[in-house]
Design goal:
This protein has 328 residues and is of the alpha/beta class. It is 25% helix and 34% strand. Strands 11-10-9-12-13-17-14 form a 7-stranded mixed β-sheet, with helices on both faces. The chain has a 4-stranded antiparallel β-sheet with strand order 2-1-8-7, with helices on one face. Strands 3-4 form a two-stranded antiparallel sheet. The longest helix has 19 residues. It is globular and about 100 Å long. It starts with 14 loop residues before the first strand and ends with a helix.
């Protein structure tokens, strides 16, 4: 199964998104036989709130088809990075689509880009970036946790992304990035507790010609402050910190009842009496904000790295030599 090359028909070994409703989506591996806890091979049957599904019944069906459950129905969808983000197994907290789209926009990713990422986690962002930079781009992603890095690499291979993604276990805060990315990266993304410690290593990874972009994801403003100061100290420019807050609006019909005030003659022993009588109802369309908007996820800090001063000096010297040669 490849996230890069679309196919029409489900085959054994494919990753399939089982869509029941927006709150019930599952990523399943299309395998007819699995092993139970005792090591015995049994038929693969998935249990959902709407009944059971025999996985073998999916073979030969087209992606997008409607399938029957024992007490309902669902759709089988082709996996995309967006659907994978909503259904992947969580090994860590993940970055969701609103932040992912903003990150890729601010890093200026395009087909052919080389990206260095630290903090692979569950691979949510990595899948999206790999889809963006294909077919000739590459993602080098690092995680200090060996088990998470190995599991992520297996998923990338299973999803057909091994040509565009390389996953390694490495503590970049202590040891920096591997030598094979030195001077190659168009962009660097850091999702770490201490991103300011990795800024010097990120400079080595970025292309020395300048213009490389860096982005950090930090949940706390204190992390942002320290990171921004470190970026300034190392010659980065165009620093910008934003927060992506999604606010949903719905257009709904609303009804308002108005009341007319009627006066009655005053009584001999008291003031004038007034009563409110219902009048006509008014119906209209209204744009209503969500009653439970999504809250804070993290701060995104981006910056641009200028050309390496050594290369700039070398270019200036070469220009002077050319001018001297022309004068002679």
């Amino acid at each position: 199964m490849s996230f890069n090359r679309y196919k029409d028909v489900i085959e054994e070994g494919d990753t399939v998104i089982l869509y029941i409703n927006p709150q019930a989506m599952y990523a399943i591996q299309a395998q007819s036989v699995i092993e139970n806890r005792k090591g015995e091979k049994i038929e693969n049957v998935m249990q959902t709130k709407y009944g059971a599904l025999k996985i073998s019944s999916l073979f030969g069906k087209r992606f997008g088809s409607k399938v029957s459950l024992s007490n309902g129905w669902a759709h089988v969808l082709y996996p995309t990075p967006e659907l994978w983000t909503q259904t992947l197994p969580h090994r860590t907290q993940i970055i969701y689509t609103p932040d992912i789209s903003l990150i890729m926009f601010m890093l200026e990713l395009k087909p052919g880009s080389i990206v260095v990422e630290s903090g692979t986690g569950s691979g949510s962002l990595t899948h999206a970036m790999a889809f963006r930079v294909k077919p000739s781009g590459h993602i080098y992603t690092y995680d200090f946790h060996e088990q998470r890095a190995d599991q992520a690499q297996k998923e990338f291979k299973s999803h057909g992304l091994s040509e565009n993604v390389t996953s390694q276990c490495r503590d970049v805060c202590q040891n920096g990035f591997s030598d094979d990315v030195t001077g190659k990266a168009d962009a660097v993304f850091l999702d770490l507790p201490h991103p300011h410690l990795v800024i010097p290593f990120a400079i080595k990874a970025l292309k020395p010609s300048g213009g490389g972009r860096i982005c950090t994801f930090s949940p706390c403003i204190e992390q942002v402050m320290r990171t921004c100061q470190t970026l300034l100290d190392h010659g980065f420019v165009q620093l910008k910190t934003v927060e992506c807050l999604e606010k949903e609006y719905q257009v709904l019909n609303r009804t308002v009842t108005t009341f007319a005030t009627a006066s009655r003659p005053p009584s001999a022993s008291g003031p004038q009496n007034t009563t409110e009588e219902p009048s006509n109802d008014k119906k209209f369309l209204a744009c209503i904000p969500s009653s439970s908007p999504r809250g804070h996820t993290g701060y995104l800090t981006t910056a641009t790295y200028l050309m390496d001063t050594r290369i700039l000096q070398q270019q200036q010297e070469e220009e002077v030599e050319v001018e001297d040669a022309c004068e002679k």
